[in-house]
Amino acid sequence: MKKIIAVDGPAGAGKSTVSKIVAARLGYTYIDTGAMYRAVALKCNEELGIGNWERNEDLMAEVLRNVDIKLDESGKVFLDGREVTKEIRTPEVSRGASDVAKSGIVRKRLTELQRDMARLGKVIMDGRDIGTQVLPNADLKIFLTASVEERARRRFDELKAKGLTVDLAQIEKEISLRDKQDSEREIAPLAQAEDAVLLDSTSLTIEEVVEKILQLAKEN
Q1: CATH of residue 143
Q2: Are 7 and 142 in contact (CB under 8 A)?
């Protein structure tokens, strides 16, 4: 059984949904690294104001100096002791998460926290650079993707179900932009690790993706 599983891929590919289910089936701990970056973005927006902190390492460092991020077993996210599970899933915070991910200071600090979380094994961790940067020695690496159109539709349905007013065309545009930003950033860009298994979920159900990963995890 693979003890450390890394799941990478672009925004909206279903990494979090699938990883949560796989973790539950295996009795592993699920670590949502994207939620950690979103939490930092939310804190930057709240404390510094949108547009005032992008690419400003000094301001980023000040925010990180006092930030406290915790993830519980149910998937809830806590920022400085306050639950922000829903707040970090808005389009505004999504854009901010991509921006803070460009910061070397932010990535260094969160990578340290993520490696500490994975040290004991029996974890599944998802993000953009888990297999290439955070856990390069993971026992199993998955690169989960889907077409831009399919990922936009999924995000549209998710946000609409939460009662938010959203526009499908705008979501598709934002996902395409985020793909470009994540793939072209200088620090830890989104990329498939050479030894990662590519899974395209465009035409697959969640259960089908879960079963494929479980099968890979149980292989010797």
Answers
A1: 3.40.50.300
A2: yes
